[in-house]
Amino acid sequence: MPPTTQTLPQNTGQETALLDACLDPRGTTSDSGTKHNGHKARRGKADHAEHDRDAHRRNLRLALKCDEAGLEAYASSLRECTVTAGLYACTGCGGWSYHTNHCKQRLCAYCAPRKARDRAKLAKYMLTHMDHPKFLTLTMPRCDDLKAGIQRIRKAFSRWRGWKAVQPHITGGYYQIECKAKGDGWHVHIHALIDGTFFPKHQIWQTWAKALGIQEVSVDISSASHPEIAQEVAKYAVKAVELEEWTPEQLREFVTATKGLRLTGTFGKWYNAKIDELLEEPAPEPMTCPCCGKSHCLYPIRAGPFVYGRDWNHLYGQYYSDLPITIPNDEIKFTVGKLAPGDAVQMHLGVDLID
User: pTM for the full model?
Assistant: First the structure.
């Protein structure tokens, strides 16, 4: 059960110095005068800060367009991403802490590149372990209904891969659905990295047209020997430059049409491949509660009703109602509670534990 609210003791200067030393990315310099690494770290920190500012500016511009499109909740999540901290609570000890918010939206200038880097890492691994890698592009006619177009091309692609005329030529791969807004509708197409034997282009054209149930289609296939192909196939579903030119109506249709839809995937011998398992890398450290040290027990306060059900209103009103749900990152204070036997400890930590 969550603990009763208690007043925390004032943080001492020694504790603050210790936390600052642990969290300062610049490191220290030795007495031997090795300051070069410190200068490089400061330059890297400055470049990272400028990148963050640019991403935040792009998010703000997109949020304004989302407001025009009637996507207020989406706009709010973009504005809050990485610049605010959300309130989390622990199911084990009931302690609370603040953690940097990440919206995880498909169009976010912070979150989308992070996801794309993970996908590119997987595609690059697949590329280097394929016997005959090829880069395949499959298109379909313009569509007025984006959601229907995405569903149509996904079903056609799944059906096409299962045909006897196609299976001998493709043993597995990775695909990405890309959407472009055009004056006459949506241009929905697939980029895929595939492995397999020689596949004549005219045969791809015939079978893909049959899968879509139309006469005219456009396809392309080429060698995928260059590592940059992995970046191409794993790029964003929408390019940032194109997104700037979208109307609010096009933006609203894309957000609503792609909500809950997967636009990437693996198939064949690479089905459900995960990069950390392929490289035998250790799994990312799970979030741990800074109050009790347990993992897999933190939940955002907004998700309280899904965690506790009908008991949540009582718990929230008794233990968390006086705490703000979100605060600016620069307002996070470093406060460490003193552990006493039998007493739960609450912490208010300025540490990004989501990453």
Answer: 0.74
